Amino acid sequence: MIETNLFIAPAAYLLAIITSALLLRAVPKIARHLQHSGESRFASIDGLRGYLAFGVFVHHSIITWIFLRTGVIDFPPSNFYSQLGQGSVALFFMITGFLFWSRLLSQGRGHDWLAFAVSRLFRLYPLYLPLMVLVFVSVFHLQGWELKESGWRLLSQIFGWLTFDRPDVNQYHRTGMLIANVTWTLTYEVFFYLALPLAAMVFIYRGNWLQVLLCLIGIYALYQIIGWEHSLKKHFLASFLGGIGAAYWVRRPQLVTWAQTRLATIVALAALTITFTAFSRAFSLIPLLLLSLFFVIVASGNTLFGALKPRSIRWLGEISYSTYLLHGFVIWMLVQRLPPVLHLDGRDPWTFLPLMAVCACLLILISSVTFLYIEKPGMTAGKRVLQWLRQKGKDQKTLAEKASHQG
């Protein structure tokens, strides 16, 4: 059975890596980007991202196969394929916690919160907005462009999607399935971003007791406000703690030195293997502890016997947001919508597997294009907006000073 065949995942990864390697050879712009980005301080994490995002694609491909056969949306019966989704997301949350808490620890009160806010907006939305438009257009196309909702109801659905919720659009059942419902993780990321200044005040800046109390109340209020619509789960949020713990770990040279040893590599791979084989869910205490142990070793610069170093893997890491965000729509188009058009049965393994292989290669191609022409320009635009805001602030300050002198 496909849902328990462990050879499918390595084959899919191999196709993705080969596609990435061919792109590096064929498209000089990609090679130049990697060259200019250079060796990141956290290069091993950059490589890990590529494996994680593509793992979620494999996870959702198996879920789609089960859905086509049974009509039921459920986790795969294989712990491995279940953890390719859940474990990968938990590690993504750890990466977020690690990178931003590390920055706070390094910069302290000098942390640029305006730059943080602008960069997050221009990181999440430039790719998400076109995908959202694609979802709405697809739904209305399937419904013959018939408006089934009131204008206000449609506006509320648009607002829901803009805030990473996935309400059914124009009464199209399970609209979120068009993108494999991946945006639920962005809600957790946004909560982390919004809570970060308050958490910094409590744990890093350490104001007086009243400030600490108000910040804790603020974090709780954020949790309630965002959770009101999206049902935030505490055990999912606990994943960020693994990354925050790693931010302290890498500041201890003796721990980093050990984490780069051969023994540490074996420990990391053992922790990952146990998680992916012995547990069906990632968001409980023991799997999260094992994944955190794996992560702190990788965050210390361990490349897992070189598995995180190749340029092809680094490129998969660069395009990981595109891969994560777009893979559901690619699966939906090629595996669910295309077979009936071609008079094929997607429930036949010899139809499904070639389509999944095409999806794997096409996903890397599409993600490379969207990174180069949507994500990267979006990040550049964010830097320009930040410069404009700072210049505007300076101009207003200058005008205020002139006015005070004249007064």
TrEMBL record:
Residues covered by the Acyltransferase domain: 43-366
Taxonomy, superkingdom: Bacteria
Claim: Ribosomal protein is one of the keywords in the record: no
TM spans (from-to): 6-27, 48-68, 80-101, 122-142, 176-196, 208-226, 232-250, 262-279, 285-308, 315-335, 355-374
Molecular function as annotated in GO: acyltransferase activity
InterPro entries xrefs: Acyl_transf_3_dom, Acyltransferase_3
Alphabetized UniProt keyword annotations: Acyltransferase, Membrane, Transferase, Transmembrane, Transmembrane helix
Protein name listed in UniProt: Acyltransferase
Species name: Pseudomonas fungipugnans
